[in-house]
Each structure stands twice: as C-alpha cells, then as structure tokens.
Amino acid sequence: MDAYTILPGKPLEYGTSITVRGVYFSVFSRNATKIFLELFEKADDETPFQTIELDPKTNRTGDTWHVFVQGLQPGALYLYRAEGPFEPEKGFRFDSKQYLFDPRAKAFTHGSVFRYIKPGKIRAMSKAPKCIVIDDEDYDWEDDKPLATPLHKSIIYELHVKGFTASPTSGVEHPGTYLGLTEKIPYLQELGITAVELLPVFEFDEYENSNTNPRTGARLKNFWGYSTIGFFAPKTSYAFDRSPGGAVREFKDMVKAFHNAGIEVILDVVFNHTAEGNERGITLNFRGFDNSIFYHLVHDHPEYYMNFSGCGNAVNANHPIVADFIISCLRYWALEMHVDGFRFDLASELTRDQKGFLMTSCPLTSRIAEDSILRNTKIIAEPWDCGGAYQIGGFPGGRWCEWNDHYRDGIRKFIRGDEFTSTEAATRISGSSDLFAISGRNPSHSINYIDAHDGFTLNDLVTYNNKHNDDNGEENRDGNDHNLSYNYGFEGPVLNPKIERTRTRQLKNFFTTLFVSQGTPMFVAGDEVRRTQNGNNNAYCQDNEISWFNWDDVRNNASMLDFVQKLIALRTRHPVFQRNRFFGGSTTSINNNPPDISWFNFDGTVPDWKKMNRFLSLRLGGKAAGIKRDEMPFEDNDFYIAFNMDIHDMTVTIPKPSMIDAKTSRKWYRLIDTSMEHINCALFDGQEESLNSQEHYVVLANSIVVLIAK
Fold this sequence. Notes:
Elements: E1 5-7, E2 15-19, E3 22-28, E4 34-40, E5 50-54, E6 60-61, E7 64-70, E8 77-87, E9 92-100, E10 131-132, E11 156-159, H1 161-165, H2 178-182, H3 185-191, E12 195-198, E13 202-204, E14 228-234, H4 246-260, E15 264-269, H5 286-294, H6 320-335, E16 341-344, H7 363-370, E17 378-381, E18 401-404, H8 405-416, H9 422-429, H10 433-436, E19 446-449, H11 458-461, H12 497-516, E20 520-524, H13 552-556, H14 558-573, E21 597-600, E22 615-620, E23 639-644, E24 650-653, E25 668-673, E26 689-690, E27 696-699, E28 703-709
Parallel strand pairs: 11-12, 11-20, 12-15, 15-16, 16-17, 17-18, 18-19, 19-20
Antiparallel strand pairs: 1-7, 2-3, 3-7, 4-5, 4-8, 6-7, 8-9, 8-10, 13-14, 21-22, 22-23, 23-28, 24-27, 25-26, 25-28
Helix pairs in contact: 8-9, 8-12, 12-14
C-alpha cells in the first residue's frame, strides 16, 4: 500500500478528527520524547505499512502530539508507540517497542484478545486488535434523542448484553449481541420497565482471567467486563456485525430501537481503574502514554500503584487531564451514542484528590453533575470504593443518585423476619430521608434494590444460606459472605412443596416491597422469572449457563412474571408511589382526608417504634399534597399496606380511607395478598376484589397485603 502524505496537523480534540482531506490524530503525553503513529492495512497484519514519527518540534503543542494524514479515510486502522524514559522509580514506564491503543479509539478490530499485544511478541500482532478511525456523522439517527424519563417514574432493569440472549433458549436470531438484545424489546415492554442498565459495554478483554473451573477444567473469562480498555468504544464481540465499525453502528441501532420502544439505555461505566493492573500488569494505553499522570502512584515509591479499586490500580480522576478525559467520554456517549445515563462503578474513587484523599467537595463529580451537555442524563453513583470510602447519602456533586445498600440490607433483614427491623424497614420504604434529605435531594435519588449483578440473584437469596462459588477457581474464597439470605430449611432446589411455597411467597414479598417503596426501583434481569446462579454470588467469570438468562424460566415461572408485571403496572399508574419529595405526615386536603402517610400497629393504634417487631402497616393518603409538578399536587387513591413477617397470622385493624364527600367514605378493595398461591394474589386496577369487612383483615404469616380505596 502506498504511503500517505503527512502534515504537522494541529491540536484538535484528542483522538481522531475526520475531514474531506484526511484525518487528524491527537494524543496526550507530557513526558514522552517521541510518538509514533502506526498505520495498518488489514486487521490481521503483523506489521504496519507506514510508521509516522511525530517530531516534538513540529508535531507537538504543549502536551498534545498531533499529525494530519492526508487522504486517509474512515475505517483506517492504527496504533501508537511512545518513546520516553523507563524509570518506574520515578513513575515513568515508557517502552518504544510496545504498541499502544489510542485512549480515545472509538472502535477496535477483532475484540477480546488484547493480551496478544505484548513487546517481543510481534508474531501475535495478527491476533491483536487495531484501532479504527470512525466517522461519527456516518449514521442516520432519524429523530432519535434521549428520552429524559423523570427519575420518579423510572424502573431500572439491570442486564448483561451478552448474557441476556446468549442461551440457546433465547430463540433470537443473533444471540449474545446488541442486535439480539433488540429482539427482546417486546418482552421488556410487556414487563413494564422504563430503562435498561447495561453491565459494562466499553471495550474490555474477555480473556484476561487465567483461572480455570476446577470441576471441568474450562478456562474462565472476564464476563462482567469491569476492566476497561477502550472507554470510547462499544465492545466489538457484542456485535453481530464484525465489519470495521460494525459494533458502533449496531450499538446505535440498539439504542434507537430502545428509544422507539420508550425504554432508556443507562451504561454501567468503570472510571475507577483500568485493565492495565498494578506494577506487574500489562501496558495497553494510559501507562504507555503517561503513567504518572493517569494513575494514583504510591507517594514515596511511584513504582507501585495505589489500589482503591481492588483491581490493581486507581485512576487519578481529579487530575485536570484525566478529569477532562472522563467528561469527554461521557459527552461522547451522550451526544454521539444517545445514551440516557450512567451508573458509576465504585464512584467514591472519583472523589479522591491527587494524593488519594477523599474530598467532600469534588471538582470532577460536580463537573459531571453540572456539565451543560450531561445535564439531562441520569448519573448514578455506587457511593463507595475498595479503599474504605463510604459516602451513602452524601456523595458529593449535587444531583447524583446513589445505590442504596441500606435499603438492600434493611429490606433483606425485614423480609427474612429478623427481630426488631421494622423501624429500619419503615425508613427505607418511605424513601430513606435519613440519608438523602440532609443533602437536599429527594426520594427518587435513592436507587432501591434488593439484589444486583454482584451477589445472589433474588431467587438464590431465598434458596441458599451460603455462597457456592466453587466453579470460580478461587476455592470459594471470592464473593461476599454477608448475604442476609435464608434457604427455609434446605440448601438449594427442593421438591418439598412447603419450602417451595415459602420461597415463592418471600420472592413476592421482596418484589411487593420494592415497588411500593419511595425511591427509584432497580432489579436484575431474570429475577422476575426466578433466574438462578446455583448459589454463585460472584459470577463475574462465568460466561455460561450460570450467568445467562434461561428463557425457559419465562414459561416455567409464568405466575411470578405475571405478579411482577402487575406490580410494575400498579406503581406506574399511581403517583402515590412515585413521590419526588419526602413525606410530611400532614394533609392539606379538605373533608378530613388522611395525611400523606400514617403508620399503624396491628390494632390500628399509633405504633411504639421501639417495640415494633416483624410487622408494619401504613396508609398512603392519595388526596394529600404529593408530587409537585408545575406547582400542582397530584390526586390519587388511598392505599393501605400491611407487612406481616412473623411466623403467626395476624388480624389487623384497617384504618379509614379518604372521604368521597363530607358524609361518604370510600371503601377498601384488595389488590395484592402474597399469601395466596393462585394467579389472583395480585390484581390489575379494575379487577380489585371487594372486602367482606372494611374494618379487619387477616394477614397471614410471612405475607404482605395491599388494599386500594375507591
């Protein structure tokens, strides 16, 4: 292939910029002495057809290295090399023989086999990915734009792109891909969720895990993807279209299809660490361009890495250069890929200053919250890291939502029947004001969840007392030991109908609690059909049936799916469950209508919170002032909800609902009773069942009852 004409270029935004005349390249390095741009003709080429040396006198402006390749077209393949000092004791790890990925590459060839790109192993370059020049304008979005669904109306469904359709049971034409995921949109619409939260889709190396399954000998993978290499590139192996840039097009097609279906796309993003690991790790991009800038290094021994992530290194996120990189990345996915929001893994690491200390006022997280381009995106923090930071309720930066592990643990203990957990559960069900009110946020900033990808599935939470991670190759040492689970008499699947009935009821209790709680609910794909991981609570390495969604469960557990659909429909229809301000306990209505919330003991009296044990009941006043929207309070039905987590049945006294007029009271109707074993344990609005008594209701042991006033 003929060589291209090379011009000095100029310091445009980092990455590649396409013009009709050719392509601009820009990359950051403060301490390199030379940069080499390597152009490849084909994806499996061993060597570049043209090496372009960037002269610091003509191809450098400040810390930006730049060049213009005249005549180069979109789809071109490239890598870099950087020359400079290799002095780990000073924080420098340059190696001019090491090929490097552009930190802002928007696509890669091949995918997944990044570990072939090592010094001294040039023969493996045919298997190593190359970066691809992408034309962002070469896609017709039609009229698509992010949906901006209000937080208080959101229901988040966490899923893995590949795992959702990889199983042969999925029945899709394109299993394990972005395209395969779009084939399941009708299922998601019928379920009723408003957003999918995708486990990491930024390019990563599936094959970085060297462990094997001790039972089968099979090599394990990095299935979850929390080990980013290409922050601007959708994962190539998730695309059915393997042509250059095919993953970008297919990802955009997926987002557009979701938006057409009224479903948002939220990305789980990992900015706290990268795939390069610690001092024994592999150089892929950041380390080779400027290790001392991009990572937290040990102050007195910069040859070593700080490890707030638990994964070998920690990104120096509040260095101005790195902060700009993160903001640019988020803007790219919002502007060019049309995603609706981001969930930040181990987000507390992003609030550490350049010395590694936590900041209560953090420049980066404030910038993300206030950025003019990102202003309408959802931003969700996992408000802790592996270095001891824990910022639940006080994550710095303003409008951030947070994963609420207080909700997770409090509800797990309450539903399990732990003693004297009713007060904690009441606080979580009513929106966790103890955590979020002080920072001026509202209930919807609490992401309520009972399980997530990391831990037991909901089904396994009621099936196993202990984790069973023996197939992970770590002798069952990995994964959390504090699961707050209970197997109800036998470890694992059972034929015993009594145990099975109890487990089913407890699953319904978990789901009912989640969807009647104030806050933004999130649950994991497959929970609605009792997906199991066979007791594995850390399936990060299991790219197989352990992690994949088994679509036979949709048929086998149709009654549970029906139950969850009805709950989602109930929450979606009634704003009383979607408050965006905390309860005040008072009413502004006439005719002596009840307050926005009232709590009761089983006998209808005011509860003594110090003595409340395994029981809760509340009335939500639908006629009281609620969600303000354009300064107008909503009007809704009253609801009475009773939680009996005791082993004994309980006859409860039902409080009065609101009035129709000055003389006539509304009547209570049953919507949900989790003790019932037939499909009518939950009813849609309009199907509700009239009560024989308007004064009392027998709430059976380990069950929840939801009544509506009409």
